[in-house]
Specification:
Elements: E1 3-7, E2 10-12, E3 18-25, E4 33-39, E5 46-51, E6 58-60, E7 68-73, E8 78-83, E9 92-99, E10 107-108, E11 112-116
Parallel strand pairs: 2-11
Antiparallel strand pairs: 1-3, 3-8, 4-5, 4-9, 5-6, 7-8, 9-10, 9-11
């Protein structure tokens, strides 16, 4: 059974930073692409960032490019999202996703809340 568990969310002031983590189990982590999405109540789920199985390729939504960095540690079955220069519009539940190919994510975590507010 595949399980993805996110952590690291919280309340941060505008301009601040957070680092999210997602620990995966139940499937060969090092063979899969990983991604972060975010969701606000009443809105569609939004792609944030993705990383290839090796970490050699990364992709970002335009809204976070230059501020967020996705990375992974295959030895720890963990993917990270470093978020800097946070803005109130970054407030959302952030979800981790796993799949064999980019854009084809079959497994999802429950999410971690990020709130950016003064």
């Amino acid at each position: 059974q595949v399980q993805l568990v996110e952590s690291g969310g919280g309340l941060v002031q505008p301009g601040g930073s957070l680092r999210l983590s997602c620990v995966a189990s139940g499937r060969t982590f090092s063979s899969d692409a990983m991604a972060w999405f975010r969701q606000v109540p009443g809105k569609e789920r939004e792609f944030v960032a993705a990383i290839s199985w090796s970490g050699g390729s990364t992709y970002y939504a335009d809204s976070v490019k230059g501020r967020f960095t996705i990375s992974r540690d295959n030895g720890k079955n963990t993917v990270y999202l470093q978020m800097n220069s946070l803005k109130p519009e970054d407030t959302a539940v952030y979800l981790c996703a796993q799949g064999r190919y980019f854009g084809d994510y079959n497994y999802w975590g429950q999410g971690t809340q990020v709130t950016v507010s003064s």
